[in-house]
Batch of 3 targets.
Target 1
Amino acid sequence: MDFFALVDERKSVRAFDDRAFEPEKLQHLLQAVNRAPSAGNLQAYEILLVRDAARKRALVSAAQDQEYLAQAPVVLVFCAHPARAATKYGGRGEALYAIQDATIACTFAMLAAAELGLASVWIGAFEEQAVAATLNLPTGWRPVAMLPIGYAAQTPDRTPRRKLEDLVHEV
């Protein structure tokens, strides 16, 4: 698909078929994520791939009961790995660049999913400590986004966007 058409057509989907998607699609998606830009090419993030139903249920609880987390066959949890960024960038790497790296990677995953005919929705509303405990995250890793991925069970309406003249400010 043309990139601009892909961006225009991608939607946040909050209802998923429970059927699994093809392993090669997951592999393509993860390879695209691995190409995401990162500060100093440190890739200061980690991705946890969750398929286990009990863990997905625990993530639902950690995410204010967003049930679609449990519907999707795969949930990717993007975690900042601040210590990786600190090796080159010190405190700013820890506090900012690792989070930016994880969010850029999540964005690449969303776009790759759409290109592959899959649906996703960015989840940022969750209790970090509950997610960390559910996934047994190592000390220092910080969950910053969860991305359920699967085939859509709905076709959401197009959401309105701000006008560019309200959004962009030339200085």
Target 2
Amino acid sequence: MDTSFNLENLLYVAKQDTGGSGRVAQFLLSLWNGDIYRADLQTVMYIDAELFSDMLALWQYLHKTNQQLSSFVTQEQMQPIIKAWGETFKRPE
């Protein structure tokens, strides 16, 4: 996949336990399954410039190619992020 974003880095960061990690995690979780997970775009804006650029580039790529994040990320790759952040960013029922 020839893109200008670093998906592996986004996945790595989202597994961590920092403020930036939470922001990346909610973005990825929402792209993974927006019916279950929410992303607050106002919060997502406040992230390091490099990560923000990767996130925007990923979003643009998915839009441009009309693909889902699940085309590039497996359930196994998402599981640590879901475990670490899933409850935090779950949509209220």
Target 3
Amino acid sequence: MTIENTPRPAALGWDASWAAAFDTAARTLGTNGAAEPAPARVVAEHRGRYIVSAADGDHSAVLAGRVRHEAASRDQLPSVGDWVGIARGSADGTAMVRFVVPRRGAFVRQAAGDVTAAQVVAANVDVALVAAALSGDISARRLERYLTLAWESGATPIVVLTKADLSEDVDGAVAAASVSALGADVIAVSAVTGLGLETLSRRLVAGHTAVLLGSSGVGKSTLVNQLLGVEHQRTSVVGDGGRGRHTTTHRELVRLASGALLIDTPGMRELQLWTADSGLGSAFADVEAAAASCRFRDCAHGAEPGCAVREAVDRGELAAERLEHGHQLRRALAYLKRKQDDLATVEARAKIKSLTRGLQSRLRDKYGGA
């Protein structure tokens, strides 16, 4: 299947690389005698049903049983931004998702609550827009968490400081955020005055996918409407202190007039890392650069002699709070890894018990006995 005869997927980011990956997935996973699958992109998800966009338009879709059965965990099921192979033909026009094309990357967090599980917020994104409101107290530590996961996803992060019209020192806020957003651009925008909107729009390239992330009430829905030029997302009245109320209820991929693609997401009340070793290195590149001069390669940047990182802190070249937060994130990842390993052990034991019981049952059926 070529780009030329799939104009709609091409408008959704389809390219020669995706075409090759799709053909490989189709051959590997097979169709079980069904019609040849067509490429489509997941643009929305609603309680187990999907909206997918294919060459002939948008379709409601459900998962084939095989896809659900063979997924080792919830994060392996389709998410907004994924490319999938679909087959059509049901009486009500519903498409069937037969396989998921392997992702190029994904923004993944620890699922909210007490469960130990990954949640894919958006798949196959090129740019991660991390929104924070200038009308509130911008948390440097929260920005670092978002940026760590953004770098881990393979996307290029951009910090978007919204509601700039409510700030008395926009330049100072941009400078402060840039300290935590090392390696990422910081753009202040205002939906009221139009400040920064053109600059941000230029960073959203036709055929490339951006994801908009941030806490509830920072103005993401208003920003989406501004970028679209239409009232697409419902917004709420700004309350005291310039803080809006959460309005986005589901993830959705929308198409901008420029040809760029944007995934809007609900506000996140908590953001815990899932896996982010390389993301931490990128988000804390200043720490990594200083660590290259430490006397010991395994320096923990504590009380070890010859620690170049602690020396940078003492000279005022590196904020002590930033170093400590990097330590906290690494400890959190180590703790989560232990929980993941424990969970995997429990699941493996349960699987062995289930297989053993099944074998014993078959042996009793075949040879008799208690």
